[in-house]
Amino acid sequence: TVLLEVKDLKAVIAESKQMVLRGINLTIREGEVHAIMGKNGSGKSTFSKVLVGHPDYEVVGGSVEFKGQNLLDMDPEERSHGGLFMSFQSPVEIPGVSNIDFLQMACNARRKKRGLPEFSPIEFFGFLQPKLSAVNMDPKFLNRNVNEGFSGGEKKRNEILQLAVLEADLAILDEIDSGLDVDALQDVAKAVNALLTPSNSILMITHYRRLLDYISPTYIHIMEDGKIVKTGDVSLAEQLEREGYRGISAA
Ligand code: ADP
Ligand code: MG
Ligand code: MG
């Protein structure tokens, strides 16, 4: 089943009207992992932000369907409740709110929107246990304030836990590898892999190939100047490593 269908998507920066996305085409089906790679400034983050409805950007052409619905008609909250999740390059700290309270609030808000009964604290704790072990997170992080004093790797892992709790259909992970050492990267990748099911999908964005050693994508796309200029399998990442982005665009 097709989860996300992007057709000739064009977007400008709202303030300056500068064109950033120049006609993106992408189809993501259930169970697939897609990686978008590209040089700095090629429009990767803009694409992910446009998908979640970031107000800095204006869509000026094309269409996006998510689970058969017009995504561009939905506000950011509806997109999120509809099953779209995006990780942030720098997750916010929330002083005075414990991680578990935050997760429970987010989870119950989602359940309410979906017409499901809210979890009591005890029910939520039960729901959380397998997810905690899937992402291999120490339960002591539940009682700490959201992201406060977390290391880079702990923040990323906490985001993967949020993703698990929200049971998103499509998770957009923008440079979850940035600033992580190899050990932390492996942990985060393991957490992501543990969440993959035949019915959810991941769109991961990365500048470097390293992440793809741990989360193996179904497809790799190369973005250049606001367009996907090439799509392939892992061999494309290998070619990239040999020839650089310049070699790929020349081909
Ligand atoms: P990437 O994530 O691939 O590094 P971005 O999507 O962040 O690239 O940026 C694409 C281009 O659009 C860059 O030239 C960037 O400077 C510009 N850009 C993106 N968002 C904004 C914004 N809010 N204001 C001004 N310029 C922006
Ligand atoms: Mg960048
Ligand atoms: Mg970026």
Automatic annotation (TrEMBL):
<dbReference type="GO" id="GO:0005524">
    <property type="term" value="F:ATP binding"/>
</dbReference>
<protein>
    <recommendedName>
        <fullName>ABC transporter domain-containing protein</fullName>
    </recommendedName>
</protein>
<keyword id="KW-0547">Nucleotide-binding</keyword>
<keyword id="KW-0067">ATP-binding</keyword>
<feature type="domain" description="ABC transporter">
    <location>
        <begin position="4"/>
        <end position="250"/>
    </location>
</feature>
<dbReference type="GO" id="GO:0016887">
    <property type="term" value="F:ATP hydrolysis activity"/>
</dbReference>
